[in-house]
Amino acid sequence: xxxxxxxxxxxxxxxxxxxxxxxxxxxxxxxxxxxTFAGTVPNIYRMLADNPAVLESFVTQExxxxxxxxxxxxxxxxxALIVASHSECRYCQAVFAKEVEAHGISxxxxxxxxxxxxxxxxxxxxxxxxxxxxxxSHGRLGRAEIGALERRGLxxxxxxxxxxxxxxxxxxxxxxxLARTRVDPEFAxxxxxxxx
Length: 196
Description:
The protein is mainly alpha-helical and 196 residues long. The chain has helices spanning 17-36, 43-48, 52-68, 73-86, 90-102, 107-114, 122-137, 143-151, 156-179.
């Protein structure tokens, strides 16, 4: 879809007031985020702040899904972890590995999910399967497959939310891959045992 720019929109070649406005908007958004994250701002948001519209759209999607989504926070984190693994995003894999475990999902189950396998828990297995199939088919699931997912306990609103999480974290993972965003120390995986 092509949209004509608004008549009052500044030219992209204009490095004057438009770039200052971008900096002001980014600074405002980052200040708000810092209050959410106890005074710090994770690197993904700093990177997205180079385009405040992108940052604001991502933050809005995250907030709405967290506040009003039908999936639990742990289920949302599982879906995001699968998207991160699918996109091979080191940053989001690190973040959501920690988040999944913070929501009470064991490291073993988390590794199973990251390895592309289905966990034994029926609900998590259904979520993982639905997410992977939606990613693989670009959302083109047939009626029979949707019916099978519904029989496994996933409702239509939950399937729509899986799609929304895929959309939000495709933006995040692709942007992180593009920028090679450094994993924040608080999200970095713990070092493994020394090999002797």
